[in-house]
Amino acid sequence: MIPVFPLGENLDNYSGExxxxxxxxxxxxxxxxxxxxxxxxxxxxxxxxxxxxxYYERPVGLGVTLKLFLKDLLRDTKLVVNDAFFRYVRVxxxxxxxxxxxxxxxxxxxxxxxGYAPVHCAAISSPAGEGMLLFAPPDTGKTLTTFAALRKxxxxxxxxxxxxxxxxxxSNPHTATFLHNEEFASQYVRTTTDPISSIIKKIPLLDSYxxxxxxxxxxxxxxxxxxxxxxxxxxxxxxxxxxxIERISKEEAVRRILIINRNEFSYHKNSLxxxxxxxxxxxxxxxxxxxxxxIIDTMVSRADCFLAKTSDAREYFHLIAGLQ
Length: 324
Fold this sequence. Notes:
This protein has nine helices and 15 strands. It is α+β, with helices and mostly antiparallel strands. Strand 8 and strand 9 form a beta hairpin.
């Protein structure tokens, strides 16, 4: 369980025969020390030119010091935080990000350098295997539309975050943002919620410290089929307004997708990655953003793009189903 890991806080055990393309080692240590004498400083980070590691240390009061160590960001990555960092940092405050967010940004960096981009969307595939991406601002209706499609025989790929190259969308079955919807939460979470957690969940900023059910989409697979990947055939932007669906230009689709992505993902503004790139010029954040845009540009150029509007989120699927 990795709190505030947007790709899925509760991960399933997996034992594959092939060696993974990306390997990230994450450890939580009670405490550790790091020799900073003779090193260069970048805000609260310490490092050295051309050395593939950075160290973070920041006293925050009451005898608590946050510590983080990152080594080899783009190959067999190692990230270590002390217990205080893991226990107390659950929201983004100033330049301090939770370990789960750092892990996501490290993973996204590795994906981009290998030609894959994260996208903040839901994704489904037809029984014939054709993929459809559903983009929308937060709380518009992506998850509701996805589950409506699953009930009609579509297959699952993602409900909040997926991965794409220029032609295909790849599944991410570990997210649990559907739990924000009370209907889905009551349907798929059978356990009794801790009363204290229920109260904390209703308090802004403190809600990240509440315990979350150990459930993800992958644990619900008995109710529908999960596909590993699908060719991208349609891209639908969901929006609020008078009920209709229309074809939109590739340029408008790219514009909206990039805004949605920039709002969701933080790799391009993460202070840990800034510090790492400061000491390691071969790690280029601007290059990563260009790769992301190039992948999305090519992906959109090969798909049919639509804008679906309605004031009732339950109607999005009916609009989409009416496309020929």
